[in-house]
Write a structure and sequence with these properties.
The protein is of the alpha/beta class and 156 residues long. Helix content is 30%, strand content 26%. The strands form two sheets. Strands 5-4-3-6-7-8 form a six-stranded parallel β-sheet, sandwiched between helices. Helix 1 (38-49) links the parallel strand 3 (29-33) and strand 4 (53-58).
Length: 156
């Protein structure tokens, strides 16, 4: 695997500063909310390719699709509350927001990270739980995607 392919940066607080919000290594865990959506599908694939334990939430009808993307564990949103089923997660990628985001703090291990592409997470809750939380918007450019393309070619 090429340089940078084994360690995935899940988000950046400020694209101009290139500050890493969460960098996970093989074997760590990530919970991806909205895994069947466009961004969620990419997140599942990138996390799986990086060797992370991927837990995903999606609608019941999307379970086979999300499983095919590489999720290790899938929690249909129509089932039992995710925070009753998973704990000690290293990072959460929130692509849903609202109540899902608020409930996600409970599944993070101390020192974990919640990253939202929907809304600014509550920094007070994050501090009280000993985790980091960040909001980011992805600016997709060829320059940012090119290194990942190399990882995909090497994984074949």
């Amino acid at each position: 695997m090429g340089e940078g392919c084994g360690r995935r940066s899940l988000g950046r607080m400020d694209p101009r500063r290139q500050e890493r919000v969460a960098a996970l290594v093989r074997g760590q865990s990530v919970l991806i909310h909205g895994a069947a959506g466009s961004v969620g599908a990419f997140a599942v694939q990138f996390a799986h390719q990086a060797g992370l334990r991927v837990v995903a939430t999606c609608g019941q009808g999307d379970v086979p699709y999300v499983h095919a993307l590489g999720a290790d564990e899938i929690l249909p949103r129509e089932g039992q509350a995710f925070e009753e089923l998973v704990h000690d997660i290293d990072a959460v990628i929130d692509l849903v927001g609202g109540d899902i985001q608020a409930r996600s703090f409970a599944v993070l291990k101390r020192g974990g990270t919640l990253i939202s592409a929907v809304s600014q997470p509550d920094q007070g809750i994050a501090a009280a739980r000993g985790v980091k939380a960040a909001f980011f918007l992805v600016e997709v450019t060829t320059g940012r995607l090119a290194p990942s393309g190399g990882c995909w070619r090497q994984a074949r």
